[in-house]
């Protein structure tokens, strides 16, 4: 049905990108954008008898808008849109809720299913550092989850010793009054559950995945 919109935009010489009913039109100035928004809204409502969602329509810099989960960086490259990152983090929080009572290995399996699909979709992003930060944040969530599972002082102490932490440091960690999230950033926790520990458990590494896509 929107083929007519494409033809109209092409006849006007506009650069645009459309997927289903989501469309971005690129012009050189705010004034031009305002004119095109008004004229195309009129075209859609009068010629095609369609209602334009005015709350989602706007004139803005390309890097300020989201399109299919992506937005533009200032250099023109694609990045994961901020809204998409928030949605991603919300999903990870749901999967790593500390009251789920599931084994860490099961949580990682669930995470991997989601992470593999997500990184495949956002493989066009040029912001590699974003994936590095997300990897660190996910590992911290899992460290927090594991601590919460142990819960009691002696259980935490015993687990840390099993993971190679010294008796003294294990006790210091176990008797700490800090909350789980703050505790998950403790150097002792990072020593006990380093990045390599998560690699052995099979946790998907987003930065490594995106690097392979770039090859």
Could you explain the architecture of this structure?
The chain is mainly alpha-helical. It is built from eleven helices and four strands. The chain has helices at 3-11, 30-46, 82-95, 104-121, 128-150, 153-162, 167-174, 180-183, 187-192, 195-200, 206-214; strands spanning 15-19, 22-26, 70-72, 78-80. The strands form two sheets. A two-stranded antiparallel ribbon has the order 1-2. The chain has a two-stranded antiparallel sheet with strand order 3-4. α6 (153-162) packs antiparallel against α7. The longest helix has 23 residues, at 128-150. The protein is elongated, with a radius of gyration of 24 Å. The relative contact order is 0.09. The mean pLDDT is 92.
Give a concise summary.
The protein has 215 residues and is mainly alpha-helical. It has helices spanning 3-11, 30-46, 82-95, 104-121, 128-150, 153-162, 167-174, 180-183, 187-192, 195-200, 206-214, and strands at 15-19, 22-26, 70-72, 78-80. The chain is elongated and about 75 Å long.
């Amino acid at each position: 049905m929107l083929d007519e919109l494409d033809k109209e935009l092409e006849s006007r010489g506009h650069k645009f990108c459309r997927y289903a009913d989501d469309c971005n039109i690129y012009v050189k100035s705010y004034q031009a954008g305002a004119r095109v928004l008004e004229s195309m809204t009129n075209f859609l409502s009068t010629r095609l008898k369609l209602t334009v969602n005015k709350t989602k329509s706007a004139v803005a810099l390309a890097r300020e808008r989201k399109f299919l989960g992506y937005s533009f960086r200032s250099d023109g490259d694609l990045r994961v849109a901020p809204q998409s990152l928030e949605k991603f983090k919300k999903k990870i929080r749901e999967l790593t809720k500390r009251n789920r009572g599931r084994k860490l290995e099961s949580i990682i399996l669930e995470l991997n299913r989601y992470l593999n699909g997500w990184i495949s979709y956002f493989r066009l992003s040029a912001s590699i550092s974003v994936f590095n930060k997300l990897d660190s944040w996910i590992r911290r969530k899992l460290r927090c989850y594991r601590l919460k599972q142990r819960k009691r002082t002696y259980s935490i102490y015993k687990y840390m010793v099993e993971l190679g932490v010294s008796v003294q440091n294990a006790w210091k960690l176990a008797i700490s009054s800090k909350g789980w999230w703050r505790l998950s950033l403790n150097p002792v926790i990072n020593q006990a559950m380093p990045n390599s520990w998560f690699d052995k458990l099979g946790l998907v590494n987003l930065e490594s995945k995106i690097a392979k896509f770039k090859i």
